[in-house]
Specification:
mainly alpha, about 170 residues, globular, two-stranded antiparallel sheet, 7 helices
Length: about 170
């Protein structure tokens, strides 16, 4: 019985430590303008936004949004033979943690979209009709990576998706 009580006490200490760290991340997030701007993107919360801002450093090192998405490993591998290129699965190069955060956020967006499908994202409906769910999740994560690049390079806030444009 004493062993179980010891384990319960250790579990409580771990939970307290996690709560303390989450509060610290939230404080840093609120104090950082770039992180706050990123958190407005659907599927990007305080942890993802803070991690992106802290990990990326100088976003201007990436000339284009596709370069940033490639750095995250969210673009398809290219194979070519006989001059005919073909696209495969994602490259998975780069920071796996950042990629995982974006994909989990994209899955949350898709769950929310399925529950509250109100036609707000017709491109997502169309993609879900044509592709498997996990492929769509990576596509949404890739779109969010492009949006993150645009917001950080231009210093703008997210105002919603418009026909083809990531930032209003």
């Amino acid at each position: 019985m004493a062993l179980i009580e010891l384990l319960i006490e250790q579990w409580r200490q771990i939970q307290d430590r996690i709560a303390h760290l989450e509060r610290a991340i939230e404080r840093w997030h609120r104090a950082t303008d770039a992180s706050c701007r990123l958190a407005g993107i659907p599927g990007v919360g305080p942890i993802t936004a803070s991690t992106m801002v802290a990990s990326v450093g100088d976003i201007h090192a990436f000339r284009r949004a596709r370069h940033f998405a490639a750095w995250l490993g969210l673009v398809p591998k290219q194979h070519s033979t006989g001059g005919k290129p073909s696209l495969g699965s994602i490259s998975k190069r780069g920071d796996g943690y950042l990629r995982r955060l974006l994909v989990h956020g994209a899955q949350a967006v898709m769950r929310w979209h399925r529950v509250r499908a109100n036609g707000a994202r017709p491109w997502l409906d169309e993609l879900l009709r044509r592709r498997p769910v996990n492929v769509v999740a990576v596509a949404v994560a890739n779109k969010n990576a492009h949006t993150i690049w645009a917001l950080l390079t231009r210093g703008e806030r997210f105002n919603g998706y418009r026909s083809g444009a990531a930032v209003v």
